[in-house]
Amino acid sequence: MFFQRKETKLPQTEQKRETPDNLWIKCENCSEILYRKHIEKNYWICPNCNYHFRINSDLYLNYILDGGGFIEEYVYNLETKDFLNFPGYAEKLKELKEKTKLNDASRVGYGKIDNFDVIFFITDFRFLAGSMGAVLGEKFFYGVLKSIEKKIPYIALTSSGGGARMHEGIISLMQMAKTTLAVIELRKNSILYINILTDPTMGGVMASFAALGDILIAEPGALLGFAGPRVIEQTIKEKLPEGFQRSEFLLKKGQVDLVVPRNELKTTISKILRLLS
Ligand SMILES: [Zn+2]
Questions:
Q1: Which of 21, 105, 141, 163 could bond to 127 as cystine, CB 3.0-4.6 Å?
Q2: Would you state the torsion angle of the CA atoms of residues 115, 120, 125, 128, taken in this order, to the nearest 10 degrees?
Q3: What's domain 54-276's superfamily in CATH?
Q4: What angle (nearest 5°) sits at the alpha carbon of residue 172, between those of residues 176 and 144?
Q5: What is the pLDDT of residue 20?
Q6: 63 vs 42, 60, 69, 123, 230, CA distance in Å?
Q7: What CA–CA distances, in Å, run from 206 to 65, 95, 112, 213?
Q8: Sign of the C-alpha dihedral, residues 61, 64, 69, 72?
Q9: What are the residue boundaries of the structural domains of the chain, listed by start?
Q10: Separation of CA 28 and ligand 1 centre (Å)
Q11: Spans of the chain, pLDDT less than 50
Q12: What does the pLDDT look like over 230-261, one tens digit per residue?
C-alpha cells in the first residue's frame, strides 16, 4: 500500500494539535483521530493505516540506541557560519538553535545497539529540513574517521527535505563530494556502513552519502529521491506511476534493500550487526 499524502509536512513536534489539551491528534494519512499517548507508545506509527509520523532525532536515538542516547563528540559545538551573508540566514540559525537546542541539522557520536559499538550519525528535520551544509559534512567526516579508528560500524539515519542547504551555496554542494569520499574511506577500511532512510530523504543528501551504504533500510512510505515527483512530472510531462519514489516502490526496483517499520529498526540493525561483525 502506498501513502498518498501532501508533500510538505512539519515535523511531529511542530504539528498543529487538533485539540487544545493535545490529548488527541489526527493522522495525516487516514484522518483517524488518535489518542496521543497511544501513538507515542506506538513509535509514532498510526495503528489504523501504518503511517509513520515525522519525528525528531531525540526520539530516533531513543528507539534505536541502548539507553536512548549517545555521546556527542566535540564536533557538536561546530558553529554554522553565514559566510555568504545570505539574507535572513543568521537570524534563522539563531532562532532554530534556541528552539531545537541543536547546533545544526546533523549530530554524530558513539552509541550502542544491543551492546554493539557503533558510530551513529543522524539528521533532524526540525533544523532547516535536515539540510546539508558545511557543518554536516564535517560531522559526517569526523564520524567516519572515528569509525575507522575504532573499527566499528557506521550508521547514518537521514531525513532531509531539500538536500544541500541553499543558504551556503556552492559550499553545501561540495559536501556531496566530501561525504562521498568519506564513504569510500569506510569501504577501503572494510567498515560496515548502514543507511536508514526516513521520510523524506531527498536532493543532495540522497544523491551522496545517504544512498551509498552497504545496506539501505527504509521506513515504510518514505519519499526518497533526488528531485521530487512533481518536478519530474513537470520536466518529462508524463504521469508517474503510483507510489513513485516511495520506499516500497524502490524496494521492488532494487534501490533499497529492506523496508522496516520503525518499531523493528533496532532489532533489524542488531541482527545485521550480529551477522556481519
Ligand atoms: Zn492513519
A1: 105
A2: 150
A3: 2-enoyl-CoA Hydratase; Chain A, domain 1 (3.90.226.10)
A4: 45
A5: 55
A6: 11, 5, 9, 15, 33
A7: 23, 27, 25, 11
A8: negative
A9: 54-276
A10: 7
A11: 1-15, 17-18
A12: 899 999 999 999 999 999 999 999 999 999 99
Give this prediction's pTM: 0.91
Determine the distance separating the centroid of ligand 1 and the alpha carbon of 50, expressed in angstroms. Answer: 6
Taking the C-alpha atoms of residue 146 and residue 163, their distance in angstroms, rounded to an integer, is 24
Paired with 107 in beta bridges are: 122
DSSP state of 164: B
- Comparing CA positions, the residue from 253, 202, 205 lying closest to residue 225 is 202
Residue 41 grid cell: 507508545
- Rounded Cα–Cα distance for residues 236 and 233 (Å): 5
pLDDT at 258: 98
Ligand 1 mean position, distance from CA 63 (Å): 20
* Cα Dmax for the chain: 54
